Amino acid sequence: MHASERERRSGAAKRRARRMSPRRRGVLAACGVAAAAAVGVGAFAQVQESTMTSLRELSARAESTMTNPYRMVENWPTLRPGMRWGAAIGLIPDDTGGLWMLFRSEPPINYIDADGNITKSFGEGVFVQAHGFCMDADGNLWAGDSGPFRDDPSTAGRGFQLHKFSQDGELLMSVGKAGVSAAGEDTFIGPTACVATADGHLIVADGHWPRPSTAQQDGDRLVKLTTDGEFVASVGKLGAGPGEFMGPHDLAFDSQGRLFVADRSNNRVQIFDQDLNFLDEWRHFGRPSGVAILRDDTLIVSDSESGRPIPGPAAAPEGGGAAPRNPGWQVGIRIGSARDGSLRYFIPGTLPEGLAGDELGNVFAGLTAGCDRSPSGGCLQKWVRR
């Protein structure tokens, strides 16, 4: 690089730094700490490993400067006879040590008690691709169906909906038009997550990558609904700017009512106020597939894709096609604070999309690949304090 070019770039960097708020500088400084946590000797090569790599081996080889005070509970939970594991994509803990699980198998919705026993199961035959799971203020379960990830004629006329169930398994309502992928007031591109609001509504993350060619290829957004399934508002569009999204993948509220969005294909967590106005973005929690926040504002973020070749939109930071995403970072679970963005712990050796935490200190991780190699015995992992 010529000297004049170096000076030009250096000057531009200094001008950007002057425009940053003190808070943004602090977050970027924390990013340096996160990078140290994410990248060790040879880590860039390590994160290219396939999803079928043994999770025991991955854990042993992961290097991090951050503390990991958690251990995985082995052989937890236990499926009922005749059930087979599928990707554990949606998790709702109940603070007893158990949780509701939405997974890509039959039956898809299951309650698991603290001992790892399944005591309720329902929802057979409803989903093409289970994706997104939340509970409203009345205790009803909302389960998303993002539709197929690629062209699949066998699923024509199905998918791209959000389904409301009672805890006894009754299908109360379906929102969206089956088989139609579009960003409308009565249709979804492909719902991936939902969360209940303090005022009795739902926020839905809409737009999964990859998606079939017949799906709307832009329009990624957040949608606000009543619990009767009525459209209230939507915000956002496909893009990388503030308040824009590229595959919003999970949602969580903090104690202030701020909404944290796992904007996965943009490698960031975006933060919004209660009116869905953009506040900030954090990039030092990795490439977020899942996000959960406890009552004390402990922030838990799962990263299942960093360093892996994942199909994505042409506008993605790494480009289209199956490029390695967010290179130089480890997959795993990062734990910090929603109040100031600080990082505390890192759980390596796991690559969960599904994520939850409870007030007892348990962290639940849902795998979408490599389940047969997990010491948990399947696609759901329970991490407890050592």
Descriptive report:
The chain contains four helices and 26 strands. The chain is mainly beta and 386 residues long. It has a domain at 3-125 and 239-385. The protein is globular and about 45 Å long.
Features:
386 residues, mainly beta, 4-stranded antiparallel beta sheet, 4 helices, 35% strand
In brief:
With 386 residues, the protein is mainly beta. It is built from four helices and 26 strands. 12% of the residues lie in helices and 35% in strands.
Secondary-structure topology with pairs:
Elements: H1 3-19, H2 22-38, H3 43-46, H4 55-61, E1 70-72, E2 88-93, E3 99-103, E4 109-112, E5 118-122, E6 130-135, E7 141-145, E8 161-165, E9 171-175, E10 191-196, E11 201-206, E12 221-226, E13 231-235, E14 248-253, E15 259-263, E16 268-272, E17 278-282, E18 290-293, E19 298-303, E20 309-312, E21 321-324, E22 332-337, E23 343-347, E24 352-357, E25 363-367, E26 380-385
Antiparallel strand pairs: 1-26, 2-3, 3-4, 4-5, 6-7, 7-8, 8-9, 10-11, 11-12, 12-13, 14-15, 15-16, 16-17, 18-19, 19-22, 20-21, 22-23, 24-25, 25-26
